[in-house]
Structures are given as structure tokens and as C-alpha cells.
Amino acid sequence: MGGSAAKVVFTLLVTLAIIIPCLEAGIAEYDDFLKNQAEEAHTIALESYVPTPEFVASELNYHVHLAMQNSTRRGLRAPRNPAFGPCDSTNPIDNCWRCNKDWANDRYQLAKCGKGFGRRAVGGLGGPIYVVNDTSDDDMQNPKPGTIRHAVTQQGPLWITFSRSMRITLQQELMISSDKTIDGRGANVQFKDGGGLTMQFVNNIIIHGIRVKNIVPKDGGMIRDSYNHVGHRTRSDGDAISIFGASNIWIDHVSLSNSADGLIDVIEGSTAITVSNCHMTRHNDVMLFGASDTNPHVNDKLMQITVAFNHFGQGLSQRMPRCRFGFFHVLNNDYTHWQIYAIGGSSKPTILSQGNRFIAPNLDFAKEITHRDYATPEQWMQWQWQSDMDLLMNGATFNTTGAPIQMTYKKGLIMKPRDGTHVSRLTRHAGALNCYAGFPC
């Protein structure tokens, strides 16, 4: 009898271990296709994991130094956009492509510009260019050619652009398949008042130059998630961008605001991600990196994310980001607004905050930048949360804990970051850009 009871308990635990992540992912039916996709995604995550993440951080600091040294000389001879003056690229990502007046004819150059943990994301590089010319989103299972839903579910690498400025209201969450670039340059592309963008069990995606706002939950149903699979989805949470079990993702120059849940949620073993040059406003729970402290798979220990050159702006409250388990490099961001805290976490994440500007709100209870949950002071005092060359303003404080993070040197690389006084310049053009063909962006 005892043996039978043990078997029942074991079976129940295994079942829960499968069902709970599926429910979190919005999966109503975990079929063989999705099981294989999840296994492949985990293999890619293991391959993408960097055992010495400090080196990736040092390398990015080195590129920031080079970019700022070169930007003054470049500005003297930079081509001009008649509407906005000379090209003013101010960080190593933008320096790679923005001052090229032929960017519209050389869109693939962007794929060579990634930095940080998401640096290997090349998206649709090598594939054809797909032009979205239809704003409709009427058929979830067999989307109409010319729509964004048709584009993101095509097979193989694809570089997705837009024929004109447009507002797209997604009737359900948009399931993006591997090896895609969504490139909004040259148009004002808004994903507004509908479902959000989801990357689940996928790899190698770039999202660039779009605006995502007023995202709401959607009921779910049968939704195409790739060229050869339609899956049954449960109700979505209303995240603007959701990354679940995905690797090698780069989100750059995206403007995000006011969604029902998070602006960017990264969970369930996702890794090798960079969030850069984004502008975020009017939201409570801004970015969640790791969703559960009791995840039976603890896949989020693989999570490595770079957050660099972003502007956390008006109307934000907390979670910029909120982290669990992994390694998070928060570099040269501008924190001009928060109401509760800026950077938080639980489950012993490692957080390296370098060269950021933190301007505390005029609220005595919210001067502290950091916030720790679900641990005693004796426990969280061991977590490695390090502030290095941050600029703390208006009474802001950063509670540093744990042993110093030992940065990895490589001959010829400068380790130290640019300090927080440079942030205004490094983040000057955060958010979706106004780009015109034939001129620097």
C-alpha cells in the first residue's frame, strides 16, 4: 500500500512539473511538436550559456569606451539629415549602423551590431525581405499573406519590414518563430490596443524599431505559431513582449508603454538576451526576468541578460528589472522615474549595475534603488548585487551586497564602465527612431 501511494505521489509531481510550466506558457495542449520544440530550446539554451559572464560584461564596457572616443571625431564629419542635423550615434550599437545613409538598402548590417548576452542574435540575416503591407489580423490559423502574422510564421530566416506607417491591433498574441527580424525602421509601426508579441521555445530573433503600447489579455484559441504547427493557446496575460524558453533574443530601439501585465517578461530558461536602446513609460511592473522562486526545473539559473542604454521614463513604478537566479548586467541606463524601486529580485540573482544614472523620486520611502524579496537579511546579504560607477541623484541609495563580482580580464580590453555622468549621451536616442531612407537614421 505504501509503495502504491508513493507511485501516486511521484506521478502527481511529474504531472505538475509538466502542467505548471505549460499553463504559464499559455499552452492548452502540450503536443509532440511542442515537446520537441521545448527540448530543442533547452539544448540551445545550454549551448548559449556563458560560463564566465563577467567577460561579456567587460567586453561591452570596452566597446562603450571605443564608441565614445570615436563619436566626437565622427560627429565632425558625419553626414546630415536635413530634418535633424548631423548623425549623432552615441553608443557602440548605434555606431555600427545609424550613420550609414544607405541603411535602407543595407538592413542586414543591423544583424552585425548586437552586443552583450544577445550578441549572437542575427534574426533573419541571409533570408529574404518580407514587406508587411496589410494591417489586418483576422485569421489566426491561416493568416493572410502580407500581414505580420503571416510573416512571423514563415519557414526559415526572414527579414520583416513595413511598407508604410501603420497601426496593428493583434486579435490574439503574435507567436514569432525562430530566425526572424521585425524591423520597423523607415515607418511608424505601432502594435497597439491588442495582443502582445510572444517568443516561445524559439531562437535567434531581433525586434527593432517598433512601438508597443496598450497591450491587453486575449482569450486564446487555435493560433498558428510556426509554418507547420497550429497550437491551442490559453488566455494571454497581456505582456507587451513575452519570452518563454527562448534564446539569442535582441530587443533594440523599441518604445513600450502601458500594458496589462509586463512590458518585457523573460521566463522559463530563456537566456542570451539583450534589451538595448529602449524607452519605457507609463507602467507598473516593467520587466520580469524569471517568473517563479519555486520552479521545479530551475531553468532560470541559465538566464543571462544585458540591459543597456535604455531610458526608464515617466510613469514607471518598479521592476526595471526584477530578477531571479541568473546573471544580469545593467549598464549605462537612465533611470529618471520610479515610484517603489528600480531593481529588485529574489532567489539569489547576480546583478552587476554599472554606469547607470539613478534619479530618485521625491518620496522618502522610495529613495532605495534595490528591493529584495522572499529571503531573510542574512540570506540576501550573500547575494552579489554590485554598484560600480553608478551616478546616484536626489538622495538615491544602492544597497550593495555579497562578495565583489570578479571581472574577467582579457589582454587589451578595458574593464571599467563609463560612469553614470555619460548616460544622458549614451541613451539620448532611446526608443523607436524616426528614420528616412537616403539619410542617416
From TrEMBL:
Q: Which SMART domains match?
A: Amb_all
Q: Which Pfam families match?
A: Pec_lyase_N, Pectate_lyase_4
List locations, semicolon-separated: Secreted, Cell wall
> What residue range is the signal peptide?
1-25
| One Gene Ontology term of the molecular function aspect | pectate lyase activity
Q: Record keywords: Amino-acid biosynthesis included? A: no
EC number(s): the record gives 4.2.2.2
Look up the domain of life of the source: Eukaryota
Q: Which UniProt keywords apply?
A: Calcium, Cell wall, Glycoprotein, Lyase, Metal-binding, Secreted, Signal
**Protein's name in the database:** Pectate lyase
